[in-house]
Amino acid sequence: MPVSKRWTVEVLIGEDHGNTSAVARLDTNDGTHLVGAGQARLNPADDDIPAIGDELAAARALSDLGHRLLLTAAADVAAVAEQPVHLTW
Question: What is the total count of domains within the chain?
Fold first, then answer.
C-alpha cells in the first residue's frame, strides 16, 4: 500500500495513587486535531500493577478518540450531503 498521508496519534499517560489517566491526541496532515480521554482506577482489593492501568486507560482514550473521529466524519458527510447522516460504529 503506497503511503500518501501520515496521521500521528500520541498517547500520554499519568498515574496518581491508583488512578491512571490517558489522553490520545490525533493530528492529521489537513489540520484536524482530536483528543480522546480515558481513565482507570485500581480496585483496592487488587494488586497494584501499573502496566494494567496504563493499558486500560490508553485503550479507553483510543476508543474515545475513535468515536470522536467517527462523529467528525459524520458531520463532514452531512455537510456535503446537506442532510442528516448516521454512521455506525
Answer: 1
